[in-house]
Design goal:
The chain is α+β, with helices and mostly antiparallel strands. Helix content is 68%, strand content 16%. The chain has 4 helices and 3 strands, in the order αβααββα.
Length: 121
């Protein structure tokens, strides 16, 4: 039974991570351009994505959707790198997400706090 709970726990958490990973990329690009490996490393350390292989399909989708632009730049450490920047549409999507996320997390926190209060009565 304990393994079933762990599996369900991992499943919903994985779904949540997948659901917010693209918006986290937009947030990381808000103030400066970044290249794919840098984004992957930051998101992986924050445990938003599993690893580097996850980031490139996500970046391709964001580019296709017009939320990020790219430019190739020479790198002092090897081959040229593709740098990603936020587009105006990406900035709008990030602003909308921030507002929705704040409202959503506030509502969830209130429900969790209410459930805790009810269970301690």
């Amino acid at each position: 039974m304990h393994n079933m709970v762990d599996k369900n726990e991992a499943s919903w958490l994985g779904q949540l991570r997948r659901g917010v990973a693209d918006r986290c990329v937009l947030a990381l690009l808000e103030h400066r351009e970044r290249y794919g490996f840098d984004l992957a490393k930051t998101l992986s350390q924050a445990q938003v994505i599993a690893g580097e292989g996850t980031i490139y399909p996500l970046l391709s989708r964001l580019r296709r959707d017009g939320l990020v632009d790219t430019v190739w730049r020479e790198s002092p450490e090897g081959p040229p790198r593709r740098y990603y920047t936020l587009t105006p549409a990406g900035a709008d999507a990030l602003a909308q997400f921030r507002a929705q996320w704040t409202q959503f997390t506030r509502a969830v926190n209130e429900l969790l706090d209410h459930a805790k209060e009810v269970s301690s009565e």
